[in-house]
Fold:
Amino acid sequence: MKPTLEAADLVKAFGKTRALDGLTLAIDPGQVMALLGPNGAGKTTFVNLVATLLRPDGGTLHVGGHDVARHPAEVRRLVALAGQYAAVEPTMTGRENVEMVARLFGYSQARARSDAAAVLERMGLGDAADRTVRTYSGGMRRRLDLGASLVARPRLLLLDEPTTGLDPRSRIELWDVIRSLVTNGTDILLTTQYLDEADQLASQIAIIDHGRVVASGTPRELKRSVGRSVVEVHVRETAALDRVAATLMAIGDGPLTIDVPTRSVRVALSAGTTRVFAALQPLDDTDIAIDEVSVRQPTLDEAFLALTGTSKEHAA
Amino acid sequence: MSIAIAPRGNAAGLFVSTEQIARRVLLKFIRSPQLVVVGTVQGAMFLLIFRYVFGGAITTGGIDYVDFVVPGFIATGALFNGMYSSVGMAEDLSAGLIARLRSMPIPRSSVLIGRALADTAIQVWGLAITVGIGFLVGFRVHGSWGGALAAAALVVLFGFVFEWMFVFFGMIAGSAQAAQGFALIVFPFTFVSSAYIPVATMPSWMRGFAENQPVTVMVNAVRTLTQGGPAEALLGHPASYFIVRSLLWSVALVAVFAPLAVAKYRRG
Structure:
């Protein structure tokens, strides 16, 4: 099957900074690909290359088989961009915004009108369609932005940090909308710094750091690739953290994390988890009040840190 | 690539996309009452201040000061209102709207042409207000009405000419606030000109600049066209002298700023 998007050894430099440094990635039809990475990893640069806003300095990038550098006009017919900001006109109504985009994509007035109405309905904006956008909430603006991107039925939808800055409820609403798109023949390339967002939405995740892909796979594969299960103990008193840490050291392998705000200690288990509960037994014999003990797969957050080697404070 | 995915439907052509872009800029202006009201009040206020406060102290030879200064306001209106174009463009850029438009399969020139046409239409609205207030405070056409019509056409042209400069400023400014600051660059050109006072009163080193810079020749073209003989006598040249020079300046300004604006837009 022909990939919707194919990037090979892609390079983009801004002055001396190589924002993309040999990035290789493919998106197959029917996929939601999440690009996960910290700020400055090159996520937005990549999206801007796919959207033909920038030209690559090296390597190749094909969208739907069209070379982005040589045939940008063809690529623009296949992609739609919803950026980090809701690129909608606040003084126009929701309907006017979507109809304008439809008209720019060459739809007749009648078709623009009916398709815009359908998209607005689908985004849950049917009732608000004739209000000016400046009366919309942040979440409504993002949904409108998404709707405007969708009205032309793009082959590949580019979502650059779609939920950044949204409150949790609006975020979940937007997730629901994005999930419903996949069934409609639109492939999605989504960038995010939120690990749970990638986990929730993506069928494939590529973790990028310093302009290249450091790991990729399904969310499950990525978590598994980091390997061993994690044991995590929550205690009631902060003072007990040190003693718990000493106990976990015996069964753990690799760095131990003491998280004071959540009063928890966690560590990846050494191979063979049979001795876990025996090892924890001493804790039972002390007066330490334990709230919760869990043995689980690593979270994407932990996978991310392990794969990128980012030493950022892990208090989240 | 033998099995490339066929592009969907049609993209809008130059006409429809220009129309849609222009429509948006106009709707934004009409639906932002603060812009309409503030712009109008500000223009009226300056005109009244010059007419009644400074006017008495300024002698303008064979023509009344009101007939001298109103053409000045008419011709420089584009420079005052141009700030709106810079700010609008900067806002569109920082809001991501330009990025979205650049990712669409529309003729790239349509985004700038649409804005330039819409902003020029907004200039015409400002021009009408200025002319209306001018007549209320005593301005009269003493030349031919044909000349006055030609003057109006020239002013619309100047608005379109300066638009390219302001759009370029808006694109390189980076933010709406910086764009507003950038637009202030034009102040020396509006004030060190014949727009509000005869340049004869300026120090000689300044006069050389004032007499030849584009704003002066544009203002004097409008002035001689609307006031006829007495204005030509005061300014020392026939209308044709100023018209030709203002048209040459117009061509030069567009030749510089339109390519700059287009190049900046293409590069993003």
In short: Residues 42 and 175 of chain B are 23 Å apart (CA to CA).
